[in-house]
Amino acid sequence: MKETLPAIDNAILSRLESIVGPERLLKDEESLQRYGRDWTRVYAPSPGAVVLPGSVEEVQAVVRLAAAEGVAIVPSGGRTGLSAGAVACRGELVMALDRLNDIGDFNPVDRTVRCGAGVVTQQLQEFAAAQGLYYPVDFASSGSSQIGGNVSTNAGGIKVIRYGMTRDWVAGIKLVDGTGELLDLNRGLVKNNAGYDLRQLVIGAEGTLGVVVEVTMRLAAAPREPVVLVLGVPDMGAIMRVLGVYQGALALGAFEFFSEPALQKVIEHNGLQRPFETPTDYYALLEIEDQHGAGMDRALELFEHCVEQGWALDGVVSQSVAQAESLWRLREDISETISRWTPYKNDISTVVSRIPDFLAEVEAVVSQNYPDFEIIWFGHIGDGNVHLNVLKPEGLPMDDFQRRCGDVSRWVFDIVQRYGGSVSAEHGIGLLKKDYLHFSRSAHEVAIMRQVKQAFDPRGIMNPGKIFDAADSVK
What we know:
Layout: H1 10-20, E1 25-26, H2 29-35, E2 49-51, H3 56-69, E3 73-76, E4 93-96, E5 103-107, E6 112-116, H4 121-130, E7 133-134, H5 147-153, H6 160-163, E8 170-177, E9 182-185, H7 198-202, E10 210-218, E11 220-221, E12 227-233, H8 236-247, E13 252-259, H9 260-270, E14 282-288, H10 295-308, E15 314-317, H11 321-332, H12 334-338, E16 344-349, H13 355-369, E17 374-380, E18 385-391, H14 398-418, H15 443-456
Parallel strand pairs: 2-4, 3-4
Antiparallel strand pairs: 1-2, 5-6, 6-10, 7-11, 8-9, 8-10, 12-14, 12-15, 13-14, 13-17, 16-18, 17-18
Helix pairs in contact: 1-3, 13-14
């Protein structure tokens, strides 16, 4: 990573203040720390200033000023990212989109709604429910993550096996590119083969192509109340057999897994109860959309079959909405629970069918090289995505911890590469993973990505240093 950028001088600060107003240009230390970081804690936040525009026009004016003066911009949403994609640590200008939080233009025929970039995910979910519809992209940070950030990271979460990623629900995007130009991409169309779909380039670009200011989102029909099961399973192979049985017979809304150490942490620190008395090495959480009212009976039949085959050792099925929510907490509370140990996270994936062999190889490398570290496994195994979390021992300096984890990550990513997988299934690259991008992308692919950035952001001001170093950008 490059050295600190030139300071944003008083003349530029004065012009920024004239665009957004003095109360919307923040320079106090508390604000710089708050807006300069995301959920990672590896890099110390050090932005030059924070600006909170209140309209698309203000965003454009700020970007034009930044482009003219060579000021780097870090777009900021709910700051719930896990790859340091929203971290400003070199004196950049943070552009927080909190004030662009309107929801409007709901169309019941098209089932679309327009959202400002600062709309919180839960706010959209509640709006959809009020219309008798459903916004299915869901994850633990839905109460604080923002739609613009979700689009910029292509957020996935717990319903991907049934509903896909954020990109599957984006009907249109308004983007202010690195020159201050406003692009209206796709305009809510279902069918649009008129050239390249630039909307899809913006989704998952981590703010490196411009500032997402508005998104037209699609909504789905509301599902019936789901049935939730938690099954104790002896090994990863059994988890995949359980997946095959249930996926072939019922509409799975989610299929998650977590390890016994993960469950122990959640129970110990969150006051939750074990789902059943029998401890097992792994647990599978299934959500079944009871489309025809017979899901409960069929779910129990399949559970009995899995027990007979030795694929499940014990289990529980929700009998109420409250119990379903309680079972979900066993999985959803893991990330927040282990955050106190500042975990080193690997967010890796391969095709679902190769998961058991893939994880067996990763497990062998991790066990051999992390004998003194506590390992927490969980993830969205139904879509091939697992999270490897290494907990930092108390007293071990962060630099030493990061170095040791980084060494082993290269060995883990060698395995990922051999399995044709991804070093970042859903968290993005940001600052944390850019040294490992070559394990998932060829040199030619990265060269094309750099050219795309050059086209959208010719001055290189949009979130520089994320995904790949600014020094490697096309000149």
